[in-house]
């Protein structure tokens, strides 16, 4: 089996994986799991050189009632984990689904007549923690379990731009995250357990889930990077900004890290045809992987996603039918070939050189303020990209107090920092 998930990135190769989207029936396949079909899908994924997958069991099927966790559903998850083991791949399991490809999968005991706040209602938080613990316990002795992640971008349910947000404060968001991470560790003490927030946590000024939470809680700092966040629309499909989007995002995440050796995980990145032409995709895959590998402490890259969503399924945004490395019939696409080749090339790539000068990101005393300066089009983003275009290999540095501006820069070996006013 592959290296321990806790192996320091400086002594182990970067991990490459794929977010697994079942070819037959998409995630609805959990309703009547076909292990033969799963085996076919995962054999194809393994053929790319991937060493891990990310798995998405649906919350309403695992826990259809607040006090009912289905043993059969937990067994189904374990069965898929075991198939991956037979193919030499490790698995991270997302515990709360949550949100996938524009659809929400929230159990009925949180909706309509039973509407409750999933983050702050004490009974709901207790029940959710029980599910996370039970899932972790069912998987704890699997030799290929990397760990659990707290759902897929569950923080989107709290965002101010959500159609029906579950409002909460920054301390409440942190308390919810800590409670669920503790449950994961109770169930599987040896796992690498992480928080899978989408980028509102990093770029939305009023969001209760913060960069500090993503960078300090859990066993690695996770980022999900998508160029349809404004990067592609603003700068263009073949722009420097698109090619270096993940590199910037990883350096932003590293800037918030409380420890230099904390692993960074690019857990989601894909090639959206809403921005890219099909002829752009191999370039995008290659550029994204090569530039991400320039970030110290990078633990792994997990591509979204394994298979296209079948066009027989209705009401998906069009791009969801095109994101796979394989098409809905299981045939390798240009993106899959490019990712396979990028994995092979990465094995020969040397360790990243030290980064250049640090561009300051003042965050102020209130964590709710000023994050938008780091978003695409913001002042910090613009200056980082300008320095990158000039070949400076810039990094970022979080400035919490004025005194930090004159402090030595431990990330860049003392390189001069440039302050940006927000």
Automatic annotation (TrEMBL):
GO terms for molecular function: hydrolase activity, hydrolyzing O-glycosyl compounds. Keywords: Glycosidase, Hydrolase. InterPro entries: GH, Glyco_hydro_5. GO terms for biological process: polysaccharide catabolic process. Residues 41-159 form the Glycoside hydrolase family domain. Pfam families: Cellulase (PF00150). It comes from the Bacteria. Belongs to the glycosyl hydrolase 5 (cellulase A) family. This is Glycosyl hydrolase. It comes from Brachybacterium vulturis.
């Amino acid at each position: 089996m592959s290296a321990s998930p806790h192996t320091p990135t400086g002594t182990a190769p970067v991990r490459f994986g794929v977010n697994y989207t079942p070819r037959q029936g998409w995630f609805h396949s959990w309703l009547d799991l076909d292990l033969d079909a799963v085996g076919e899908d995962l054999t194809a994924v393994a053929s790319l050189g991937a060493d891990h997958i990310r798995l998405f069991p649906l919350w309403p099927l695992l826990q259809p009632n607040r006090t009912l966790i289905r043993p059969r559903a937990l067994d189904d998850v374990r069965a898929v984990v075991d198939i991956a083991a037979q193919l030499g791949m490790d698995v991270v399991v997302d515990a709360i689904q949550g949100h996938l490809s524009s659809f929400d999968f929230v159990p009925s005991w949180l909706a309509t007549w039973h509407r409750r706040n999933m983050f702050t209602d004490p009974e709901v938080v207790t029940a959710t923690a029980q599910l996370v613990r039970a899932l972790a316990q069912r998987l704890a002795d699997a030799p290929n379990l990397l760990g659990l992640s707290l759902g897929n971008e569950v923080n989107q349910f709290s965002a101010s731009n959500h159609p029906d947000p579950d409002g909460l404060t920054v301390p409440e968001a942190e308390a919810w995250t800590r409670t669920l991470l503790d449950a994961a560790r109770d169930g599987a003490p040896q796992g690498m357990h992480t928080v899978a927030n989408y980028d509102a946590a990093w770029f939305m000024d009023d969001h209760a889930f913060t960069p500090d939470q993503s960078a300090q809680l859990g066993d690695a700092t996770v980022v999900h990077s998508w160029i349809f966040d404004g990067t592609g629309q603003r700068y263009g499909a073949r722009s420097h900004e698109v090619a270096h989007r993940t590199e910037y995002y990883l350096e932003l995440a590293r800037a918030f890290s409380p420890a230099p050796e904390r692993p960074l995980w690019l857990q989601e990145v894909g090639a959206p045809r809403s921005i890219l032409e099909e002829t752009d995709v191999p370039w995008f895959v290659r550029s994204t992987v090569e530039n991400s590998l320039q970030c110290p402490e990078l633990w792994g890259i997990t591509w979204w996603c394994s298979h296209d969503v079948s066009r027989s399924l209705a009401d998906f945004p069009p791009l969801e039918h095109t994101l796979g490395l394989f098409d809905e019939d299981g045939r390798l696409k240009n993106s899959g070939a490019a990712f396979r080749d990028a994995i092979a090339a990465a094995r020969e790539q040397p360790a990243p050189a030290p980064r250049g000068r640090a561009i300051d990101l003042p965050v102020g005393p209130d964590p709710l303020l000023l994050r938008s300066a780091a978003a695409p089009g913001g002042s910090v983003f613009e200056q980082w990209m300008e320095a990158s275009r000039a070949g400076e290999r810039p990094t970022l540095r979080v400035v919490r107090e004025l005194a930090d501006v004159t402090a030595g820069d431990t990330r860049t070996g003392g390189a001069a920092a440039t302050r940006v006013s927000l």
